[in-house]
């Protein structure tokens, strides 16, 4: 499912003139080859679960991540505390600490 979703999402890059212009701007800005989308799709299509795990372990460190969870504290806070990912900090709609 995820592979197909990633590949199909590329179609949106061509849906509007603005999207196409943005993609062409990225090609120019980052000096990408003109066939980089095709190459990207090939890479995604050929990735294995082990490849994904390796990338996640290399680039994602849960110990330095900040998790933002939005929901009803009355029903979710206790479950969140049970995850053991640190003490939840409650904030209001503007991001101010909500004691």
Q: Helix and strand layout, with pairings?
A:
Blueprint: H1 2-9, H2 17-29, H3 36-46, H4 49-59, H5 73-82
Task: List the main descriptive attributes of the protein structure presented here.
99 residues, mainly alpha, 5 helices
Q: Brief description of this entry?
A:
With 99 residues, the chain is mostly helical.
Structural class: mainly alpha
Q: Count of DSSP E strands?
A: 0
Radius of gyration: 20 Å
Q: Which term fits the overall shape?
A: elongated
How many DSSP helices? 5
Mean pLDDT: 86
Measured as a percent range, the helix fraction is 40-55%
Cα-to-Cα separation, first versus last residue: 41 Å
Order of helices and strands: HHHHH
3D architecture notes:
This protein starts with a helix and ends in a 17-residue tail after the last helix. It has a domain at 2-60. The protein has helices at 2-9, 17-29, 36-46, 49-59, 73-82. Helices cover 54% and strands 0% of the residues. The chain is built from 5 helices and no strands. The model has no long low-confidence stretch (mean pLDDT 86). The longest helix has 13 residues, at 17-29. With 99 residues, the protein is an all-alpha fold.
């Amino acid at each position: 499912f995820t592979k197909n979703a990633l590949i199909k999402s590329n179609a949106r890059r061509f849906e509007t003139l603005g999207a196409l212009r943005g993609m062409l701007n990225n090609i120019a800005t980052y000096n990408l080859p003109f066939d980089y989308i095709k190459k990207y799709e090939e890479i995604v299509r050929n990735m294995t679960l082990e490849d994904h795990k390796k990338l996640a372990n290399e680039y994602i460190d849960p110990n330095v991540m900040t998790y933002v969870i939005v929901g009803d504290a009355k029903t979710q806070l206790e479950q969140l505390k049970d995850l053991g990912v640190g003490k939840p900090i409650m904030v209001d709609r503007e991001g101010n600490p909500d004691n």
